[in-house]
Design brief:
With 250 residues, the chain is α+β, with helices and mostly antiparallel strands. It contains 5 helices and 11 strands, in the order βββαββββββαββααα. β4 and β5 form a beta hairpin.
Length: 250
Amino acid sequence: MHVIGQIRGASNTTVLARLDDPDAGPLVIYKPISGERWLWDFPEGTLAGRERAAYLLSEAGGWGCIPRTVLRDGPRGPGMVQEWIGEPGQVASVVRLIRAGSSARGLIPVMRASDERDRPVLLAHEDADDVRALAVLDVVLNNTDRKGAHAFRHEGRLYAVDHGVTFHVEDKLRTVLWGWAGDPLPDAEVDRLHGVARALAPDGPLVAELGELIALAEIAGLRRRVADLLHDRCHPQPSGGWPAIPWPPI
């Protein structure tokens, strides 16, 4: 692994690097455990472990939207290494700001806001099947930080990143993807959740690997969320006991 530089603005150490060839090797994001800030509400485990666990869930359920994510050693010690998607300017967020006079076609508004000049805008996200599927995955993961920049398209394919604060045992869902709140789940997502429930069998290989990444109580909470979704068969609505949208939302 060859470090290119640190990405500024991240709350934890986030490094851009190349694998193998320092000039032409594949780009990756490397987040060393040594650079993680301790979080009072996530006292167990590591952000890196939860990133890997989120990738495993995405693959097990067939979402396939989280870039390849592994745990391995690096120049600053063990950490998470994730495939870098696209080049600057080649990715586009699925979240948009709708200004006065702009078209909202293909978008679902979720929040009133103001832009940098204090002009009224609407925060909206794409009304697309894969984005809706990602909203379901975020419920399963109990994602506390689905910002607009964390869900984007490259060459038409949807990707989702930054899953270090997931799997909490308490309901802490915080996302910009509320456009389907209260709506029935599509049949495809119900079928997917049944598959995830089967994959979470106690004696299965998925649970064995998750057990090395997140706490047993968090695995139990994961099973409960899947069961609740299958029971209710609808997208949840904000609970009111926790901020529903992360800050900043984009």
